[in-house]
Amino acid sequence: MKKTVITMLFALVTMMAMGQKSVEWDKPTTEYGTHYGDGFFQLALDVTKVELKDSETVVHITAIQCPDYPDSWFQFASDTYLKVGNNRYTVLSADGIELDKQTRTNKDGKRDVVFHFPSLPKGIKSFDFIEGDGEGAFQI
User: Fold this and answer.
1) What is the pLDDT of residues 30-49, one digit of tens each?
2) How far apart, in whole angstroms, are the C-alpha atoms of residue 139 and residue 116?
3) Among 52, 67, 121, 133, which residue carries the largest CB count within 10 Å?
């Protein structure tokens, strides 16, 4: 009897683990760009990876600024959200940046930032990344 219970628990745990699959989009295509033909730009945002997990959605972005402009900064608003249809998924936290605070890139002109959002619906093919609703907010 004890072996049967242990076997059933093991089978249940295994099935639960198999159901928690995540999908990764590596270097997804975006419609955002700030590069100009002459090579000068203020800020470029490169979405490097999106992780669609059962527990959360994780968006990895590399922010790039020209290191020739030492006074340049950027920030992400705390009301940054993902939009799927008419539904908003507001940012839960961010790594590599403090929301609502002016931030500079590293000496190489880059800064890696990771955003954590609630999980998005299964099977989505696209979403909008919107940096709040304020004036000058960007959308990817």
Assistant:
1) 766 555 445 556 778 889 99
2) 17
3) 52
- The answer to the question of residue 2 being in a domain is no
Residue 138 falls within a domain, yes or no? no
The neighbouring-strand residues paired with 89 are 82
CA dihedral 56, 131, 60, 111 (to 10 degrees): -140
Q: What total number of domains does the chain contain?
A: 1
Report angle CA 86, 91, 93 to the nearest 5 degrees: 170
| SS3 assignment, position 58 | strand
Give the pLDDT confidence of 73-91 residue by residue, as tens digits. 888 999 999 999 999 999 9
Decide if 13 is inside a domain: no
- Print the domain residue range for 47: 22-130
Residue 136 lies in a domain: no
